[in-house]
Specification:
binds cobalt (II) ion, Beta-carbonic Anhydrase, Chain A, 14% strand, alpha/beta
């Protein structure tokens, strides 16, 4: 499926033309501002496109992608994206979307030295360790792989919910809600893992409650 580099500019020219043919002010409007309702955190995999699989238009989704859709508190890139989306864009929904046949998850299941990728894959290996009893009880390799993809989404959702900005904003506005999805490359369908956001939030607040600060309480009573 390789194509020449120049094709991209040709595609871009056609895209601009088609946008302008339906709305002559499309780019004028686009340039003004953004009010996306969704933050999408997904895998960098070239097959798991964010906007296309959701049928979203420019301006509708704020996107962060990395290998195996990981949210780690020490990763400034993902935490800055979440902070900005929650505090400034006031997104209503945060979606963590994994996908079956994820190379990052597969690599993490392989207990070998993968050099520079090791510290990144450790995030997923930690997910495996947290759920080792369940995963090791699955005999079929393919099913175990699929399940780790799902559990990785769940744990990354929990990592999002651990963040103070998410907890604070939720108390103030009842948004954002965090959702866990898996994109099934084999069917093209999005599967909603139906994570019970309220319950996860309540459970983790026993340990990670970051909302008792005076700042939040003062804002809440205003
Ligand atoms: Co992937």
């Amino acid at each position: 499926m390789s194509q020449s580099y120049e094709v991209i500019f040709e595609n871009n020219r056609k895209w601009v033309e088609s946008k302008l043919s339906t709305d002559p002010h499309f780019f004028e409007e686009l340039a003004k501002t953004q009010h996306p309702d969704y933050l999408y955190i997904g895998c960098s995999d070239s097959r798991a496109t964010a906007e296309e699989l959701m049928g979203a238009k420019p301006g509708e989704v704020f996107v962060h992608r990395n290998i195996a859709n990981v949210v780690n508190t020490l990763d400034m890139s993902s935490t800055a994206v979440i902070q900005y989306a929650v505090e400034h864009l006031r997104v209503k929904h945060i979606i963590v979307c994994g996908h079956y046949n994820c190379g990052g998850v597969k690599a993490a299941m392989t207990p070998e030295d993968l050099g520079l990728l090791n510290p990144w894959l450790r995030n997923i290996r930690d997910v495996y360790r947290l759920h080792q009893a369940e995963l090791d009880s699955i005999e079929d390799d393919g099913k175990r792989y699929d399940r780790l993809v799902e559990l990785n989404v769940l744990e990354q959702c929990i990592n999002v919910i651990k963040m103070a900005c998410v907890q604070e904003r939720y108390i103030l506005e009842e948004y954002p809600i965090v959702h866990g999805w898996v994109f099934d490359l084999r069917t093209g369908k999005i599967i909603d893992l139906e994570i019970d956001f309220e319950k996860v939030l309540k459970d983790i607040q026993k340990i990670y409650n970051l909302t008792e600060s005076n700042w939040v309480m003062n804002r809440k009573t205003k």
